Every structure is written in structure tokens, then in C-alpha cells.
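Backbone-to-sequence.
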């Protein structure tokens, strides 16, 4: 077994080659499909519809609404998850007290809460924010706590010997040490909320990519539906790359 690490440029070439191969297979399969219903799913039909959607201002309205919900959901998840992660990472009693509760809650599908969220918060954006924040908060809590536990104890002893205040320890030692782990949690959270977003937007809202898919389905425009799926995948990929860029940026500091 060859475990030699590929050069970075070669790794990206392999990735691009795999992507091209995927679309080539899709195109070849489309050539084998006879005229009829399934022609809607060929690569040629999908790309033509995708070009039309890219030129339609309504598409960007749906994208903007979905991104707004994603960012607000992630904001609340970070606002709640980082302090809790810092607390349980530094306090063994808090960690022991909360660990089983958190493990239990994080295994519940966020979409299971949808009927309760709608009943309490009403129809609209509020239940979507709740579902996204609930889905995103767990990887942020757990990765933040892991980052705190992995802080070099020698740094903490040095800070103690210099009579550093808890705020100074947090600012100058703990926070720089855990930032990378927080970004790991954020990357995982984005992957989760991007999955939860689409079905959440199929309930009680009139905009967003989830609603856009539902609308295309109701109009029986399956080529448009598949094009929207490609848009969702592309935006999710861009968000993931953005977090990876931040990870590399702060790792280099």
C-alpha cells in the first residue's frame, strides 16, 4: 500500500479529473436515453435550463433568502455553541454533567422538531432559524470543547505564574488555540445546515432554494428541479471552500 502524499497541485488535478469524468458519464448516459420523460434528466437539458436560471433574477432572490437563513442560523449556533464549548472544555464537572444530555439531543434529527417549531414559533422564518441553529450547534460545541482540552498545559502554567487574569488567559492562550477547532466545527455545521435547509424551506415560506425545488416539482419541470439541485451543490461547495480558506489563513498566523 502506497501512503506517499500527493503534491498539492497533483491532488487538485485528480479532483478536477474526477469531476470531469462524472459529467462525461452523465453526458454518455444521456445519449442512451430514448426520447420521452427521462430526457429531462440529461446533461444537455439540465445545462440549458441552468443557463436560463442563472440569467433569471428570481433565482438570485431564492439564493439570497437561503443564504440569509443559513448565516442567521449559524450566527445563533456560534453564539450559543462557543461559550458552552469553552465552559465544558475547561470544567470537568460541567463536561460530565452535560455530556450524556448533549449526545442524546444531537442524535435527534433536527427535522423531527419541525412540527413543534412551527406550533411554537409559527409559520415563516423563525422555525427555520431554530432548526438550522439546532442542527449546527452540536459540532461547534464539541469541537470548541475539544480545542480547549487540547490547549498546551505548559502555556496555562506560564500564564498562572505571571498572574494572568481569566480574561487574559482566554484572550491570549485559549482563544488562539481553539480557533482552528471552532472552524472545523463550523465546516461540519455548514454541511449539516445545508442539508437541513432545503426540507425546512418546503414548509410555510414562499422563497428560498427549498421552496424553489418544491415549486419546480409542482410545475412538473424536472429539468429545472435538477438544475436547482446543481445550484445547491455549487453554493454548498463554495461555502465549504470558504471555511477551508479561513482554516488555512488562521493556521498560517
Amino acid at each position: 500500500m502506497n501512503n506517499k502524499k500527493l503534491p498539492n497541485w497533483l491532488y487538485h488535478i485528480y479532483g478536477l479529473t474526477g469531476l470531469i469524468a462524472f459529467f462525461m458519464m452523465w453526458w454518455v448516459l444521456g445519449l442512451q436515453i430514448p426520447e420521452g420523460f427521462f430526457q429531462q434528466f440529461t446533461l444537455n437539458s439540465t445545462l440549458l435550463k441552468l443557463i436560463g436560471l442563472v440569467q433569471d433574477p428570481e433565482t438570485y432572490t431564492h439564493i439570497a433568502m437561503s443564504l440569509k437563513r443559513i448565516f442567521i442560523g449559524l450566527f445563533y449556533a456560534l453564539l450559543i455553541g462557543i461559550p458552552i464549548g469553552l465552559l465544558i472544555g475547561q470544567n470537568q464537572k460541567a463536561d460530565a454533567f452535560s455530556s450524556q444530555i448533549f449526545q442524546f439531543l444531537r442524535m435527534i434529527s433536527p427535522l423531527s422538531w419541525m412540527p413543534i417549531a412551527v406550533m411554537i414559533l409559527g409559520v415563516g422564518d423563525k422555525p427555520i432559524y431554530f432548526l438550522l441553529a439546532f442542527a449546527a450547534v452540536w459540532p461547534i460545541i464539541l469541537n470548541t470543547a475539544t480545542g480547549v482540552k487540547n490547549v498546551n498545559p505548559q502555556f496555562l502554567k506560564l500564564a498562572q505564574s505571571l498572574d494572568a487574569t481569566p480574561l487574559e488567559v482566554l484572550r491570549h492562550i485559549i482563544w488562539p488555540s481553539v480557533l482552528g477547532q471552532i472552524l472545523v466545527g463550523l465546516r461540519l455545521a455548514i454541511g449539516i445546515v445545508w442539508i437541513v435547509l432545503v426540507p425546512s424551506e418546503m414548509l410555510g415560506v414562499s422563497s428560498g432554494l427549498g421552496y424553489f425545488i418544491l415549486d419546480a416539482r409542482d410545475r412538473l419541470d424536472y429539468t429545472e428541479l435538477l438544475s436547482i439541485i446543481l445550484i445547491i451543490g455549487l453554493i454548498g461547495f463554495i461555502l465549504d471552500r470558504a471555511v477551508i480558506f479561513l482554516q488555512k489563513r488562521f493556521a498560517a498566523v
